[in-house]
Amino acid sequence: MSMWEPGVKKRVLYAGTGDVVDYQEGTKAVFHYETCKLDEPPTVLDDSRSQEKPMELIFGKKFKLEIWEKCLMSMRVGEVAEFVCEPRVVAQYPIVAKSLRDIRQGKQEHPRHCCGMASDNSLGYADLDELVRQPQPLAFIIELLKVEKKGEYSQEAWQMTPEEKKAALPRLQEEGNNLYRLKQFHQAADKYAEALGCIEQLLIREKPGDEEWVGLDSRKVPLLLNYSQCKLILGDYYPVIEHTTAVINRDEGNVKAYFRRGKAHAAVWNEREAQADFSKVLELDPTLKGAVRKELKLLEDRIKSTEKEEWGKLKGKNVFG
To answer: Whole-model pTM?
Structure first.
């Protein structure tokens, strides 16, 4: 292990291939990382292999943990290396780790570049709070999986300019539609959610009620409906109720929104709400009488089945003491 950067020692564990990458602005590095303390045996703080996806870093986006950019700039694709860093070099690691953990647990949305600061004295993770109180050296084991130049990969919403976000909306919706047709409902929902995220970020720049704002807001309706349909198929009913309600607040005569919300209410035993939504469906479109009757019959049968099951349990007990 040699001193490679002030405060950092690098040791190559597995040699990569090709030349060291020339990282221009917008280049994306895809890599796995493991963060350890220097105790014996080493305490692992974070390991990206436990996540669904490896880490992605876009150069030129002012990533808060600068040493990771420097580490990657010294590596070849396929290389695995260990970087042992002095405390001053990794002072920002607790904040970056908090952001990455929160994203993994669904506590916040992207961006992955982790520029946010903690809003209070506690980061919400005991091991990270300890690092803040008692800074110590850390070791990163990094495996560089892939490098893509700007234009070679699809940008996520946080990486785009407002103009790029607007241009991406039809593409994201069409990709979602294609995935839906292939019955890849999780992936389709992700595409619709990404498009909705673009719109939300664009809306922030506009004044509510202005023509541009109204136009953008109206584009949410088909995306919310498509997202809700995916969630309905996947059995994730409460987001369906939330997002179809958002559609109804914009368009009180939207039959699809009432029908899908009625099905979601029925699935979570909201009998009155389901019946009210299905009644509204019939009011708006009487030709759907057969479909509504089928859904109401399913709800009635489920309720009867549950009541019968509960009564059977009570019969075997002396409930009167």
So the answer is: 0.54
H or E, element range at 315 = helix 289-315
Write phi, then psi, for 3 (nearest 5 degrees). Answer: -75, 115
Determine the 3-state secondary structure of 148 from DSSP. Answer: strand
Residue in the block written with tokens 């241009």: 167
Residue 96 burial by CB count (10 A; 0-12/13-18/19+): exposed, middle or buried? buried
* Residue 58, strand partner residues: 28
- For the CA atoms of 203, 207, 211, 217, the dihedral, rounded to the nearest 10 degrees, stands at 30
* pLDDT tens by residue, 5-33: 789 999 999 998 888 888 888 888 999 99
| Whole-angstrom distance, CA of residue 239 vs CA of residue 227 | 9
d(C-alpha 74, C-alpha 56), whole Å: 16
pLDDT digits (tens, 9 = 90+) for 45-95: 999 998 778 998 888 877 788 999 999 999 999 999 999 999 999 999 999
Domains of the chain plus CATH, in order, are 2-148 (3.10.50.40), 157-308 (1.25.40.10)
CA–CA separation, 189 and 185 (whole Å) = 6
For residue 93, what are its two tokens? 């690691």
